[in-house]
Amino acid sequence: APNQISVARGLLGVGAANCLSLSRLSRAWFVPAAAILFDGWLFDGVDGDLARARDLTSPRGYFLDRFMDGLAKIAVYLGIATCSYAHFEIIIFAPLIETLNDVITAQRIYLTGADLGAPLGLAHVFLMLLTPLVLTALWPAAPISVFGLGLWWFDIAFLVGMTVSATEMTLSAIGLCRALAPPSSHSI
Questions:
Q1: For residue 135, which phi and psi values (nearest 5 degrees)?
Q2: Which among 38, 58, 100, 185 is least surrounded, fewest beta carbons within 10 Å?
Q3: Contact 153, 135 (CB under 8 A)
Q4: Is 27 exposed, middle or buried (0-12, 13-18, 19+ CB in 10 A)?
Q5: Phi then psi for 184, rounded to 5 degrees?
Q6: C-alpha to C-alpha distance for 35 and 42, rounded to whole angstroms
Q7: Using one digit for the tens of pLDDT, what is the confidence trace for 134-160?
Q8: Which one, of 104, 120, 126, lies nearest residue 176 by Cα?
Q9: Cβ contacts of 165 within 8 Å, gap of 6 or more
Q10: CA–CA dist 35, 41 (Å, integer)
Q11: Mean pLDDT, all residues of the chain
């Protein structure tokens, strides 16, 4: 059932987060983390497609899908932040920006009925998660240093990815403000 797939997707995210966090003990944990992240990526969207194909769409199912996706993202980001191959202070901004982006998306849907989707789509899974994971597994040293601070692959990916995400979020918020009708000058 679609809702079971949504729950499975969320649980895959929690499983990947645990593997990522355990990678501080052994880089071998990156292998199951990568496999689980890839499987989660494959499942993302299947629940909605199945619900539409079986005419089982509902507000509850939509909410469950969004909630479990959010749970998976936050868990994975926290797993990365605690893996010892990233700076917690950099990675922790990802769930904050993603959550604010989700709030703006929810407001857009509520106020206009339109869900524009993310311009990058699921590319962020590869750009921010799988690519730095593979690079860290192969080359665990911090590849660059900025002002004496060694930046790991995850840090680099998140700095770039969160800059893009924050820009998307800002443009989306501006677009939503412009799309909403201005208040009437006669209303109180």
A1: -65, -40
A2: 185
A3: yes
A4: middle
A5: -70, 140
A6: 11
A7: 999 999 999 999 999 999 999 999 999
A8: 104
A9: 94, 97, 98, 101, 124
A10: 10
A11: 88
Tokens of 89: 């202070």
- For every residue of 137-188, DSSP letters joined together read HH--S--EEETTEEEPHHHHHHHHHHHHHHHHHHHHHHHHHHHSPPPPTT--
Q: What is the pLDDT of residues 32-78, one digit of tens each?
A: 999 999 888 888 878 888 999 999 999 999 899 989 988 998 999 99
- pLDDT in the model for residue 152: 95
Given the DSSP bridges, would you call strands 144-146 and 149-151 parallel, antiparallel or unpaired?
Answer: antiparallel
Counting residues of the chain whose pLDDT is more than 90, the rounded percentage is 58
* First-residue to last-residue Cα distance in the chain: 48
DSSP letters along 9-64, please?
Answer: HHHHHHHHHHHHHHTTT-GGGHHHHHHHHHHHHHHTTHHHHHHHHTT---HHHHHH
